[in-house]
C-alpha cells in the first residue's frame, strides 16, 4: 500500500496499481483540473492545466523536498511517500495562466454554444481563473467545418487533441489530425478521409469545450434542462451503460456511462443515436381489439379482465419472448402463461444479428447480436422449460395446430416479421401481440397491445458477458401504453404498483443463474458468472 | 598557456576539405582506429565523462552523464541521432562543420556510437542546409566504401549503419524529442518527459541525441586525450556544488554589425569583447555595440556594459541571459532600434512554436500580437509591463511547458525590456503620441483569426 499525501491529507493507494496524480487525487476527492488527459487515451501532457507541485522523500534522509519544477499530474505516477500540492500559490498561478491563455483567442460563443453548462473552460474559469482581465474581448464567432459524422467549430478548439488521439487509438481509424503549426493550428480530417466510423460520436463527449458538435444533438436542448437517467443501451448484446437524458419526457440524447467492466467510456453510434424510435409518431399508441372485421379501441380497465379470460379459454398457450424484454418482464410473462397453462410453450423470438462482431483496438466490441437481453431471457425461459425453442420451431408448432393461444412480445426497433410468417398465426383461438410498431402480425392480432420502449421501463438486462445491469426508466410512455411489467403484474393479480426490484428479488431466489442479483445491484451491474462456491455474495462488485 | 590550436575548424578553408582523402591526410580517422583497437566502449565513455565535455547545442548538459542514462545491458537496438537541425537564430557553426569537415562530424558520430553501443546513427540535417546534407551523405558513402561504416568496422566487430535524414523546416525539430518525432515521420511535437530518450527514444528504444559540435569534440578527446581537452576553458569552481566547468574548444559564431563576421575557434570562456574585437575586428563603420546576443536568440541580449563577461556556461547568466547557448554572437550597433529586435524575436518564436502546449502557443502569439499593435502605432507604455508578465508566465516557473522553446521565447523579451526600457518607451511615445498612456485592457489579437466572422 503506497501512502501519499495530497494537500496535507494522507491517502492510501493499493499496491501494484500505477495511477497518476489526477486519478489519485480524484479518489481522494480532490479535483486536479485537466483538459487533455483522459483515462482511456494516451497521456500527452499538453494542456498544462494539471500542473501540481510534487515532493518525494530523499532516499537517504527521508525528508520530503518539494521540487521547484511544476509537474503535470497526468504524467506523475504516484509512489510511496509522495507529497502532492494542488492548491499552492504556484499551482494556482499556473492554472490561472493556462485558463487566461485559452480564453485569449476563444470566440465569444457561449450564448450559441451547445457546451454551455457542461463546459470545462467555463467551469475552470469560475473555479481557477484570474479575476481581472489583462486583455479585452475580441468579439467574434467561430468558423464551422464539417468533418463527416460530426461538425467542428474550429475557433473554439483548445487543441487538447483528445479527438485526434481517440481516432488513432480507440477507433483505429485516424481520420482526424492537427494541421498547421503554433497558434494557427486547427483540427481537420486527413484529406480524403472524412470522420466516418461507428464510434465517432464519442469524440463529442471527449471534447472539453464546444468545438465538436454532435449533428443529432446540435441546438436541440440546453443541457441544464436535461435530466440524466442511468440506463443500459438496448442496441446489441454488449449492453453499454448509458445515460438517457431527457426533458419533460422527451429524450434529447444518449451518452455513455462509465463502466470499467463493459464499455469503459464509450458507446457506438448505432446505440447512441438509436433512440429516435421512442418518439416516432408511427408508434402504436393505444390498444386495439379485433372481432372479426370489427376493430375497437377498448379501455385498459376492461382489457385486463378480457385478456385473462381469453387466455384461460384458449387451450394450449404459447409465448414468443422478445430478446428486448427485461428479465423481470420475461419472468412475469412466463409465470403468467404457465399459471394458466402449465404446459405453455415458451419460445425465444427472432434474435436479430449480423455476421460479425465489430472489434476495436482498445478492446471495445459492438456485438453482432443486435438485442440486449437474449442471454437473460433465455435463462429465464430455460428455468421454466428446459431447452428453449426458437422462433422457427414455434412457427412450426403453430402451423401444426399445437398452440391455440399465443402471446407475442415484439419490441423490435425495425420490422421483424413479414407477411408470410404473420399468416401462420391466423388460425389461433386468440392472438395477443404486444409491440412498438404496426406490422403484418399486429394487423392480425385479436388484441394488439402497444409496447413500451426501452427508455420507458425499469428493467434488467444480461449482456454477452453474463453481466446483469438494471436500467432505470427515463421517460413516460405515450398515454395509451401500459408497460409490459405493469401489465403482467396486474394480469397475475398482484397487488399494488409494479415493483421491478421485487420481481428481480423473486426470480433471483427462484433461478440459480440469477442468484447473485439477490443483493443490491451496483451501478456497473453484477457478474452473474461469479463462482458461488468460492466466494460470498458480497464479492460481486470486484 | 600555449597558443590556441584549432581542431574543430582546422580543415576549414583547405581545398576539398570535405573529402575523405583530405581528412585522412590530416590525421582523420586516427582516433577511430585507436578507439576500436585499444579502447572498450566503456573506456571511451569514461574519457568523455572525465573530459567534462558539455553539449554544444545550447543546453550544455554534460555529455558523459547523458550517455550514462542509457540502460545497462539493454538488448538493443540503441540509436544515436546527430542533431544537425541548427535553427537557433544567429547560429551557423554546425553548418560550416558539416559543409567543410563532414568527416570529422562523422568520425565523432561513429566514436559516440561505439561508446554508447548504438547500432544505427541518424544524421538529422535541417532542410535549409542542402549543401551540408549533400556533403554529409557523400561522407557517409565514402566512409562505407572505406570500411568506417557498415559491418565489422576496421575488423573490430563493431557494426554501424548511418543514414542522413532531411528535416522539413521547423525550429522545434532541434529539440531532441521533436527531432525524434520528426525522424519517425510524425509532427514534430516534443514528447513529455519522462520517459527520457535514453530510456525510450527513437521508436521507443534507448536513444542518444547529440549536437554536431559535441560529436566532433569526441574525436579530439579520444585523439589527444582528456588532459588536453581539460587544459582549455574554465575549470570547475570548487565553491559551486556540482559545477563541472566549461572545458574544451568552442566554435564561436560571430555575425551582425562587425567587420569580420565568421566562425572562430577558441577555448571556452573567452570574454565576449575579445571575440568581437580581436576575432571579429570590432564593430563595423567605427560604431559602438549597443547590444549583443551571446549565444543564439534564445539567450537574450547583453547590454554594452556587460561585454566583459566570459563566454562559458555560467558567464552570460550573470547578466540575466538564459545561458551560453551556442556561443554564436550577434552584434547590434548603436543605430539599431531595439524595438525591431524585439519584434523580430517575438515573430520568430510565435512562428516556430509547435503549438502543443498552452502557455507557449498562446504566450508567444500574444507577445507577437502586442508587438504588432505597437508597430501599428497603438502601443501603450503598460504593454512593456504586460510583456514582462507574459515572459515570466511562460518562462519563469520551470516545468510550465513541455520543452524549452518557451524559455527561449521569454528571454529575449525579458532581457530586452529590462535593459533597454528607456529606448522602448521612447519608441512607444513617438509612435503613439495620443494613446501611449492608456491603461484599459485592449484585445489580445490585432484582428480576429483569419476568416473568423465578426
Structural write-up:
- The complex is a heterodimer of chains A (542) and B (454).
- In chain A, 24% of the residues lie in helices and 20% in strands.
- With 542 residues, chain A is an alpha+beta fold.
- In chain A, α8 (327-340) packs parallel to α9.
- Residues 532-542 of chain A have low confidence and may be disordered.
- Chain B has three domains: 20-228, NADH-ubiquinone oxidoreductase 51kDa subunit (Rossmann fold, 3-Layer(aba) Sandwich), CATH 3.40.50; 249-333, Roll (Ubiquitin-like (UB roll)), CATH 3.10.20.600; 338-453, de novo design (two linked rop proteins), CATH 1.20.1440.230.
- In chain B, 40% of the residues lie in helices and 12% in strands.
- Chain B contains 16 helices and eleven strands.
- In chain B, the strands form three sheets. Chain B has a five-stranded mixed beta sheet, sandwiched between helices. In chain B, strands 3-2-1-4 form a four-stranded parallel beta sheet, with helices on both faces. In chain B, strands 5-6 form a two-stranded antiparallel sheet.
- In chain B, α12 packs antiparallel against α13, α12 (338-352) packs antiparallel against α15 and α13 (358-378) runs antiparallel to α14 (382-395).
- Classes of the chains: A alpha+beta (542), B alpha/beta (454).
- At the A-B interface, β5 and α2 of A face α12, α13 and α14 of B.
Amino acid at each position: 500500500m503506497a501512502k501519499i499525501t495530497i494537500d496535507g491529507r494522507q491517502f492510501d493507494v493499493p499496491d501494484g496499481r500505477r495511477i497518476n496524480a489526477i486519478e489519485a487525487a480524484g479518489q481522494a476527492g480532490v479535483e486536479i483540473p485537466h483538459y487533455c488527459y483522459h483515462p482511456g487515451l494516451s497521456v500527452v501532457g499538453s494542456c498544462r492545466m494539471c500542473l501540481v507541485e510534487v515532493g518525494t522523500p530523499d532516499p537517504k534522509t527521508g525528508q520530503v523536498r518539494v521540487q521547484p519544477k511544476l509537474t503535470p499530474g497526468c504524467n506523475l505516477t504516484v509512489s510511496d511517500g509522495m507529497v502532492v500540492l494542488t492548491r499552492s500559490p504556484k499551482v494556482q498561478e499556473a492554472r490561472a495562466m493556462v485558463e487566461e491563455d485559452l480564453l485569449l483567442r476563444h470566440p465569444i460563443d457561449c450564448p450559441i454554444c451547445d457546451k454551455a453548462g457542461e463546459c470545462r473552460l467555463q467551469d475552470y474559469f469560475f473555479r481557477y481563473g484570474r479575476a481581472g482581465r489583462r486583455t479585452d474581448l475580441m468579439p467574434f464567432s467561430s468558423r464551422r467545418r464539417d468533418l463527416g459524422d460530426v461538425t467542428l467549430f474550429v475557433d473554439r478548439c483548445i487543441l487538447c487533441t483528445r479527438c485526434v488521439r481517440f481516432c488513432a487509438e480507440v477507433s483505429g481509424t485516424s481520420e482526424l489530425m492537427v494541421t498547421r503549426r503554433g497558434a494557427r493550428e486547427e483540427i481537420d480530417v486527413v484529406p480524403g478521409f472524412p470522420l466516418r466510423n461507428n464510434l465517432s460520436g464519442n469524440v463529442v463527449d471527449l471534447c472539453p469545450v464546444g468545438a465538436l458538435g454532435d449533428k443529432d444533438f446540435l441546438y436541440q436542448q440546453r443541457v441544464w434542462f436535461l435530466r440524466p437517467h442511468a440506463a443500459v443501451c438496448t442496441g446489441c448484446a454488449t449492453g453499454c451503460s448509458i445515460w438517457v437524458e431527457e426533458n419533460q419526457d422527451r429524450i434529447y440524447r444518449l451518452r455513455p456511462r462509465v463502466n470499467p467492466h463493459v464499455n469503459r467510456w464509450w458507446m457506438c453510434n448505432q446505440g447512441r443515436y438509436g433512440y429516435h424510435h421512442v418518439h416516432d409518431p408511427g408508434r402504436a399508441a393505444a390498444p386495439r381489439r379485433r372481432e372479426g372485421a370489427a376493430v375497437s379501441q377498448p379501455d385498459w380497465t376492461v382489457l385486463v379482465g378480457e385478456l385473462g379470460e381469453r387466455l384461460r379459454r384458449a387451450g394450449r398457450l404459447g409465448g414468443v419472448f422478445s430478446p428486448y424484454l427485461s428479465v423481470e418482464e420475461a419472468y412475469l410473462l412466463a409465470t403468467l402463461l404457465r399459471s394458466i397453462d402449465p404446459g405453455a410453450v415458451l419460445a425465444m423470438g427472432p434474435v436479430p444479428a449480423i455476421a460479425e462482431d465489430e472489434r476495436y483496438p482498445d478492446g471495445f466490441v459492438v456485438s453482432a447480436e443486435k438485442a440486449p437481453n437474449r442471454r437473460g431471457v433465455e435463462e429465464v425461459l430455460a428455468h421454466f422449460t428446459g431447452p428453449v425453442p426458437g422462433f422457427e420451431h414455434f412457427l412450426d408448432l403453430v402451423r401444426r395446430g399445437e398452440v391455440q393461444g399465443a402471446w407475442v412480445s415484439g419490441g423490435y426497433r425495425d420490422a421483424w416479421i413479414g407477411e408470410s410468417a404473420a399468416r401462420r398465426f391466423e388460425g389461433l383461438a386468440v392472438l395477443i401481440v404486444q409491440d412498438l410498431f404496426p406490422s403484418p402480425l399486429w394487423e392480425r392480432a385479436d388484441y394488439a397491445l402497444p409496447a413500451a420502449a426501452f427508455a420507458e421501463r425499469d428493467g434488467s438486462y444480461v449482456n454477452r458477458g453474463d453481466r446483469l445491469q438494471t436500467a432505470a426508466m427515463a421517460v413516460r410512455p405515450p398515454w395509451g401504453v401500459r408497460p409490459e411489467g405493469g401489465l403482467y403484474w396486474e394480469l397475475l393479480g398482484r397487488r399494488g404498483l409494479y415493483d421491478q426490484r421485487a420481481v428481480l428479488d423473486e426470480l433471483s431466489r427462484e433461478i440459480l443463474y440469477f442468484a447473485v442479483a439477490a443483493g443490491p445491484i451496483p451501478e456497473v451491474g453484477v457478474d452473474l458468472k461469479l463462482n458461488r462456491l468460492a466466494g460470498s455474495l458480497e464479492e460481486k462488485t470486484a | 598557456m600555449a597558443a590556441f590550436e584549432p581542431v574543430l575548424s582546422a580543415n576549414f578553408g583547405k581545398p576539398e576539405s570535405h573529402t575523405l582523402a583530405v581528412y585522412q591526410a590530416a590525421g582523420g580517422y586516427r582516433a577511430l582506429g585507436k578507439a576500436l583497437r585499444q579502447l572498450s566502449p566503456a573506456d571511451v565513455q569514461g574519457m568523455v565523462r572525465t573530459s567534462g565535455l558539455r553539449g554544444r547545442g545550447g543546453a550544455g548538459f554534460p555529455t558523459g552523464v547523458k550517455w550514462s542514462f542509457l540502460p545497462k545491458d539493454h538488448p538493443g537496438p540503441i540509436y544515436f541521432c546527430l542533431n544537425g537541425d541548427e535553427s537557433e537564430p544567429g547560429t551557423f557553426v554546425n553548418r560550416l562543420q558539416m559543409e567543410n569537415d563532414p568527416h570529422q562530424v562523422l568520425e565523432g558520430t561513429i566514436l559516440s556510437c561505439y561508446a554508447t553501443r548504438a547500432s544505427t546513427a541518424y544524421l538529422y540535417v535541417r532542410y535549409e542546409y542542402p549543401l551540408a546534407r549533400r556533403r554529409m551523405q557523400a561522407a557517409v558513402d565514402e566512409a562505407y566504401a572505406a570500411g568506417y561504416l557498415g559491418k565489422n568496422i576496421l575488423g573490430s566487430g563493431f557494426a554501424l549503419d548511418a543514414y542522413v535524414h532531411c528535416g522539413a523546416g521547423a525550429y522545434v525539430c532541434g529539440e531532441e524529442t521533436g527531432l525524434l518525432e520528426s525522424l519517425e515521420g510524425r509532427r514534430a511535437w516534443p514528447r513529455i518527459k519522462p520517459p527520457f530518450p535514453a530510456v525510450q527514444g527513437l521508436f521507443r528504444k534507448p536513444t542518444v541525441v547529440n549536437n554536431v559540435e559535441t560529436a566532433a569534440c569526441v574525436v579530439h578527446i579520444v585523439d589527444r586525450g582528456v588532459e588536453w581537452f581539460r587544459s582549455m576553458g574554465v575549470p570547475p569552481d570548487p565553491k559551486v556544488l556540482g559545477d563541472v566547468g566549461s572545458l574544451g574548444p568552442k566554435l564561436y559564431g560571430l555575425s551582425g554589425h562587425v567587420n569580420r563576421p565568421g566562425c572562430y575557434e577558441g577555448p571556452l570562456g573567452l570574454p565576449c569583447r575579445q571575440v568581437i574585437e580581436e576575432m571579429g575586428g570590432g564593430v563595423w563603420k567605427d560604431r559602438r555595440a549597443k547590444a549583443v546576443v551571446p549565444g543564439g536568440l534564445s539567450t537574450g541580449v547583453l547590454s554594452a556594459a556587460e561585454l566583459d563577461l566570459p563566454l562559458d556556461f555560467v558567464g552570460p547568466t550573470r547578466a540575466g541571459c538564459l545561458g551560453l547557448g551556442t556561443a554564436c554572437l550577434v552584434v547590434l550597433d548603436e543605430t539599431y532600434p531595439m524595438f525591431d529586435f524585439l519584434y523580430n524575436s517575438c515573430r520568430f518564436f510565435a512562428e516556430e512554436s509547435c503549438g502543443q502546449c498552452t502557455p507557449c502557443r498562446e504566450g508567444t502569439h500574444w507577445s507577437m500580437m502586442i508587438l504588432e499593435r505597437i508597430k501599428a502605432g497603438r502601443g501603450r507604455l503598460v504593454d512593456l509591463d504586460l510583456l514582462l508578465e507574459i515572459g515570466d508566465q511562460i518562462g519563469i516557473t520551470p516545468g510550465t511547458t513541455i520543452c524549452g522553446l518557451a524559455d527561449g521565447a521569454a528571454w529575449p523579451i525579458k532581457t530586452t525590456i529590462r535593459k533597454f526600457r528607456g529606448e522602448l518607451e521612447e519608441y512607444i511615445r513617438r509612435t503613439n503620441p495620443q494613446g501611449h498612456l492608456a491603461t484599459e485592457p485592449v484585445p489580445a489579437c490585432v484582428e480576429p483569426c483569419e476568416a473568423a466572422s465578426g
